[in-house]
Amino acid sequence: MSGGLVVRGLTVRYGGRTVVDGVDLDVVDGRVLGLVGESGSGKSTIARAVLGLAPVHAGAITVGGQEVRRLSARERARRVQMVFQDPFGSLNPRMSVGGIIREGLEALGDLPARERAAEVTRLLELVSLSPDLAQRLPRRLSGGQRQRVAIARALAARPGVLIADEITSALDVSVQAQVLNVLRGILAAERFSMLFISHNLAVVRYISDDIAVMRDGVIVETGPVDEVLAAPRHPYTRELLDAIPQLHPTA
Amino acid sequence: MRRQLRTVFSTVTGSVAAVLLLLLVLLAIFGPIIWSGKANAIDVAKAWQPPSGEHWFGTDELGRDMFARSLVATRLSLLSAVAASGIAIVVGVPVGLLAAMFGPRLTSAFQSVVNVSIAFPALLTAMFVGTVIGIGVPGAILGVGIAMAPMFARLTQTLTASVISLDYVAAARTMGVPLRRLVGRHVLANVAEPLVITATTSVGTSLLGISALSFLGLGARPPQYDWGGLLSTGLKAIYTSPMAAIGPGTLIALSGIVFSLLGEVIAGAFGDNQSNRRFGRVARAMAAAARRLSAKPASPSDALLDVANLRVGFPSENGELPAVRGVSLRVAAGERVGIVGESGSGKSVSVMAIAQLVEHPAVVTADRLRFLGTELSTMAPAARRRFLGTNLAMVFQNPMSSLNPAMRIGTQLAEVAQVHSGLSASDARTRAADRLAEVGIADAGHRLRQYPHEFSGGMRQRAMIAMGLMETPRLIIADEPTTALDVTVQRQILDLLLAINRDAGAAILLISHDISVIANVCERVVVMYAGVVVEDLPVASLLRAAAHPYTRALIASVPDMTTDRDADLATIPGRPPALDDLPTGCPFASRCAFATDECVAQMPPLAPMADGHLAACWHPQGGAL
C-alpha cells in the first residue's frame, strides 16, 4: 500500500511547552524527504506524533489521504513504520532476529503462517544479511547488522511510509555507509516513501530527494535537495551549510 | 539458562540450597503419608514429656509426638507460604503493569496507594484481612498474600517503567503488536529475572508471616496445624520441654533461609549470563599478544610530546586485553595533530594514558613518555600532577561529567589557579572572568556565579576549555570535544581551539571519529585501528596520497557535500577484530581488498612513504581519492 505522508499545521505540546509549532510537511509518494535540524528542534517529535507516540495538540497527519489518528493500530502499522536511532535499544534482547521480524508479519496477520519463514528470509536478504542470522539473538550482532534487522522489521509491514530517525548516528562511519547503501538499494527496489531524519546534512543530502530544515519547532526552509543546498534562502540553512566540516574542497 | 542453573548449583551455596530444597519438598510430599498416624496418636498419659529417644521433640498436651507433628506440618506450612506468595504475585504484578503502562495520572495515583500500603506493617494488614475473611488457613494465606502484594506491584511498576521507555517497545507498538503480546514478549520477558528472584525469596517471607499468624492463633486451628501453630503449642512447655518449641521454630527458620539462598542462587545464575562465555579464548588472546610486533620507536627529539611504544592493557578474567599496542606519537610545539579512529581503535585510551589518567588495574607501559622534555613515567606522582596541571589541558566529550554540578563555574575555574599558581582567591576570580570572556562567553562576571546546569552544552564545553586555559598549557588534548554538540556549535568550538592555538601557541591533540573534523583543525593526522597506528600523514596529503587501505576506505565511506548521490558509498566489509581475538598479522587484513598471505602472517611496521608520511602496510596504495 503506498501513499505519501502529509502533515498540516502540526502542533505538539508537552505541558506548556510547544515543541512542534504549526509544521507542514509533504513526503511525496515514492520520494525521500530529509528532515534536518539540531537537537531539540523537534524533528523526532514529528516522527513520534505520526506514529501516535506524542500528544498532538493541533493539526492533521494523513497517509494516503487518511488521518492516521483515526486509524486502528494495525491499520496505522500497515501505512507507517519507523526505524529508531539506537540499534541496541530497539531490538528485544530476548527474541531471535527471525522472531523479531516474524512478529511484524504476525501482527499484520495477512500472510499465511507457512509463508512467513520464506518472507523472513526475503527480508533479511533485502537488507543484505545472511538468512542464517535468523536464529541469533541481537546481542551477537554488530551495530550495523542490528540496524539492518530493524529496517527489515519495519519493512515486514510493507508500509507506504518509512520513518528513519537518526538511524546512522550511533554507528561508526564505515558501518554507516553499509546501512545507507542498503537503504538506497531498498528504495530502488520497493515502492515506498521515506521521512529521513538526521542532524547530519551530508547524510541527508546523500539519501534524500527533498529536504526540510527545522529550527525551534518550525520548518524554516523546504524544497528539492539540489535547489535548497545550492541556493539556500534562509539564513539558518546557510549557517548550517557553513558549519559542516569539509574534507573535500567544495567545487 | 538451564546450563547456567547447572553451573550455579555446582557452587557451595547452590548445592546446599538445592539439597535443602529437595529435602523440604520430599518432606512436604511424604511427611503426612509416613508420619500421620504417629502424629495424631493421642496418649494423654504421656502428655508434656521432655525429649527422649522415642519422642525427639517431646510430646504435647495430648501426648502426641511433636517431632512427627513437625514433619507432617511441613506440607501445610510450605503450601500456605507458596499460596500466599502466589496471591501476592497474581494481585501485585498486574496492578504494577497496569500502573506503569497506562498513563502518568494512573501511575501517580497508584504510587500514593502503594506507598501507604507498603508503609503499613504487613503483619497488621494480614491480621486485618485474616480477621475479616475468617480465622483459619485460607484467611491467613489471603492476609499474607495481600499484605505482600504492594511490594510486587511496586517492583513490577518500576521495572516495567524502565523497559517500556525502550525503543523496542515503541517499535512493537508501531508494528501494531496486540497488547497481550506486547506485555508478554516485550515487557514481562524483560522484567522476569528480578521478579522471579523476588518471588522466590518472598516464599520465605510468607512462611514467616503465616507462621506468625498461626502462632497468634489467627492461622491454622485444630485439628489443622502448621509450624506456627506447633510453635505456639510448644511454647506452653518451654521450661519443661524446650525442644517442643525449638523444633518447629528451627524448621521455620531453616525454610526461610532455604528460600533466601535459592533467591540468591537464581540471581547469580541470571547475573552470570555472559561473563563466563569467553573463557576459551584466554590462551589464544595471550599467545597472540605475546607474538605481536611493536611499531618502530621514532627517534628521540625535542618534540613537545614524545611517546614511543605506548601499551595499555586492561586485565580481564580472560587475561589482559591489549587496548593500545605500541603507539608512537610526536607532537611539536604549537602543532595541531589529530587522531582518528572508530570505536575500539584505542585512540581515547592512548591519550588518557599520555595524560596519566588511566588508573589501576589497567597496565600502562612505554619506552618513552616524554612531555616538555621530562619523562613522565619516572616522576613522583605529586610532582607529575603539578607539572601536568600547569602544562596540559584536557577537554572531554561530555563536559557535564568533568564539571562538578554542585559548584559554581567561577569557583571551579578559580580553584585551578589557586592550586597551581598559588593565586589569591580574588586574583584567581579575575583571571577566571578573563578566561571565560576569552572563550567567548558573554557577561562573564554573571556567568561565574552560575552552576554548570545553567549552561548550554556548547557553553559548558567553552567553560571546560576556559578551565584548561587558567594556567598556560603547552598542549591541549581534546577527546571528541564536539561529538555531543550540534554542528553549528561544533564549528564555534573548533574555531575556538584554532584561535587558542594561534594566539597562545598551545599545541592541540584532537581525537575524533570524524576525519573531516580533524581535517578542518589539524595539520597532521594519525589513523588508529585495533590499538595500533596504521598511518601518520599531513592533512594536506590526505586526499592526495593516503596510502593505507583503511585510511582510504574511511575517507571514501563518509558522505560529504560533494559525494556522488547516484553511486554507492564505499564500505568496509566485516568488523574490527575483538581485543581478545586479535590476529597475528595486520589487524585490517581480514577486511582489506589488497590483503595477501604476507598480511595475515606478519604485522607490517610503520614505514616512511614520503616526507612526514608513515604507513603500516605491506601493500600501500597510491593515487588521489
UniProtKB/TrEMBL annotation, chain A:
Keywords: ATP-binding, Nucleotide-binding, Transport. SMART domains: AAA (SM00382). InterPro entries: AAA+_ATPase, ABC_transp_ATP-bind, ABC_transporter-like_ATP-bd, ABC_transporter-like_CS, Oligopep_ABC_C, P-loop_NTPase. GO terms for molecular function: ATP binding. Residues 5-241 form the ABC transporter domain. SUPFAM superfamilies: P-loop containing nucleoside triphosphate hydrolases. It comes from the Bacteria. The keyword RNA-binding does not apply. PROSITE patterns: ABC_TRANSPORTER_1, ABC_TRANSPORTER_2. Belongs to the ABC transporter superfamily. PANTHER family: D,D-DIPEPTIDE TRANSPORT ATP-BINDING PROTEIN DDPF-RELATED, TRANSPORT ATP-BINDING PROTEIN. This is ATP-binding cassette domain-containing protein. It comes from Phytohabitans maris.
Automatic annotation (TrEMBL), chain B:
Pfam families: ABC_tran, BPD_transp_1, oligo_HPY. It is found in: Cell membrane; Membrane. Keywords: ATP-binding, Cell membrane, Membrane, Nucleotide-binding, Transmembrane, Transmembrane helix, Transport. Residues 74-263 form the ABC transmembrane type-1 domain. Residues 305-555 form the ABC transporter domain. The chain crosses the membrane at residues 12-35, 76-102, 123-149, 155-174, 195-218, 251-271. It is a multi-pass membrane protein; Peripheral membrane protein. SMART domains: AAA (SM00382). PANTHER family: DIPEPTIDE TRANSPORT ATP-BINDING PROTEIN DPPD, OLIGOPEPTIDE TRANSPORT ATP-BINDING PROTEIN APPD. Belongs to the binding-protein-dependent transport system permease family. This is Dipeptide/oligopeptide/nickel ABC transporter permease/ATP-binding protein. It comes from Phytohabitans maris.
